[in-house]
Amino acid sequence: MSDFIWSEDPSIQLKSNGKSLEYRCFGPSPDQAPTILLLHEGLGCVALWRDFPAKLAKASGFGVMAYSRAGYGQSDPADLPRPLDYMTKEAVDSLPQLIAAAGLQQIILLGHSDGASIAAIYGGSVEDHRVRGLILMAPHFFTEDMGLASIAEAKVAYENTNLSNRMGKYHNNPDNAFYGWNDSWLHADFKNWNITDVIDYIRVPVLAIQGREDQYGTTAQIEALKAQLYAPLETELLENCQHTPFLEQPDLTLRSITNFCTRLHAIETAQSQPR
Fold first, then answer.
1. 180: Cβ–Cβ under 8 A, 6 or more apart, which residues?
2. How far apart are CA 119 and CA 53, in angstroms?
């Protein structure tokens, strides 16, 4: 029997794949409503979602769960160096254990950046009928020169400015968080990283959101979804927005996500009614 507690208390942690992970939950528990599971970006954590989870739970009526992967926030450190397929391993090895530990029942995976890639890999690689939809914010399916250049600039900033101290406000071990991400993306062999094959196997509706000025990826990432996805796809390209739609265009992002979740739930409810 799981000892998982659905709570906003940031001091409670759960175990997944041998790591203790911080998490926070908002809104109704999994036995009362579907759950939106948030997967953060490459330098993110629970706290860096800011007030977005609480607002999303209130607007959608769904439960919202955010957690920090190993190496981030107050979770256990990651084992470094990360393998270059770390996002696939996260999706296939760690995420199923977390979902089981939390007792989630009807799930919409909402990922940002690395988290969006992990959500897409899960949707296309793991057979899990509890997952009813994917929301992908600023997803990566392959590397782009401009994105790699921005990641190289981030390394310069980390080693020459106060970025480490700023990250230390949110991460127990900022070096573990930063280099676990940065060293992987800047590894010479990572330039050939490509997960577009998972798109062919996604069988649930997808909402893709991207800022037109995203400094880490172009709209070619969204075009790959349009070209390969068999499932229903909705896209939202946001003006005056870079890599973090939920912070840079919070109202538009929240509205798009809430509308998508509402439509998805209405379809499921109608399909479950006796004819």
1. 71, 78, 80, 81, 82, 86
2. 17
**Per-domain residue ranges of the chain:** 13-272
CB-neighbour burial class of residue 35 (10 A; exposed 0-12, middle 13-18, buried 19+): buried
- Residues whose CB falls within 8 Å of the CB of residue 205, separated by 6 or more in sequence, listed in order: 132, 133, 134, 231, 232, 233, 234, 260, 264
Longest CA pairwise span in the chain (Å): 65
- Tokens 């270059």 map to which residue? 84
Give the model confidence (pLDDT) of 177-216 as tens digits: 999 999 999 999 999 999 999 999 999 999 999 999 999 9
Contact (CB, 8 A) for 125 and 88:
yes
Whole-structure pTM value: 0.96
CATH 3.40.50.1820 fits 13-272, yes or no: yes
Note the helical H segments in the chain: 52-60, 86-89, 95-102, 114-125, 145-160, 163-167, 174-185, 220-228, 245-248, 250-272
Q: 193: which DSSP letter?
A: -
**Length of the chain as a residue count:** 275
